[in-house]
């Protein structure tokens, strides 16, 4: 796993609830092995300046890396959430691509995993290998603090472009499922007020770009080549989730795709 922390160090304490069954990291038999045994695959060759092949195998790159950043712009509350990122089996075209994902910090599920009611990850799905259930990565970020020229606390991850990125606290079963929480840094208690403007429990409906009709939380890799949807990114895009104390168009978490400048997450109004 390639982790780059920005600002305060991250203390990972949040577990992911009710996903069932942690991946062991054991890789199922290579789905391309039968083909390789039958036909073999010739290594790619480099050509020298005199036109002779050197026979040196070229390491395949599956996809470009993305930077996934989570930013806590709340001045006084601790942010708790988690994320998952995965690559579907249907996206893999060769054993070399599979190996590239394994080198890049992904592991392959050895059992089916249901993520709430909306996602079912079959055996063989590549998940970014976090310490939580099914590869989830818990994240805790300290408050930004009050005063002038404060810098929001944040953490960033470099990972091979996945098919899906999901930030959540509870396994998603509806848009009322908890996406992230704010807690008092002194007592550790979740702020009162449920999902109101000052409340500590924020729902999937309060995350920018997540859709409720149809119910499809998360952001997704575009595979059509056409115009991007609001919840889509392309290979190599940066993705930033900025969590603020005030709502912007009803959202307390603002997603910025393909732009290194994160949103502030500040604003007024009820969701």
Topology at a glance:
Blueprint: E1 2-6, H1 33-39, E2 65-72, E3 78-87, H2 95-103, E4 106-108, E5 113-115, E6 119-121, E7 126-128, E8 137-141, E9 153-160, E10 164-168, E11 178-183, E12 201-203, E13 211-212, E14 215-216, E15 219-221, E16 232-233, E17 239-248, E18 251-257
Parallel strand pairs: 2-17, 15-16
Antiparallel strand pairs: 1-9, 2-9, 3-7, 3-8, 3-10, 3-11, 4-7, 5-6, 10-15, 11-12, 13-14, 17-18
Mind explaining what this structure looks like?
With 271 residues, the protein is mostly beta strands. The protein is built from 2 helices and 18 strands.
Question: Can you summarize this structure?
Answer:
By secondary structure, the chain is mainly beta. It has helices at residues 33-39, 95-103, and strands at residues 2-6, 65-72, 78-87, 106-108, 113-115, 119-121, 126-128, 137-141, 153-160, 164-168, 178-183, 201-203, 211-212, 215-216, 219-221, 232-233, 239-248, 251-257. The two termini are 35 Å apart.
Report the helical percentage.
under 10%
Shape assignment: globular
- Over the alpha carbons, how many angstroms does the gyration radius reach? 20 Å
Distance between the termini: 35 Å
Biggest pleated-sheet summary: 9 strands, mixed
- The strand count comes to 18
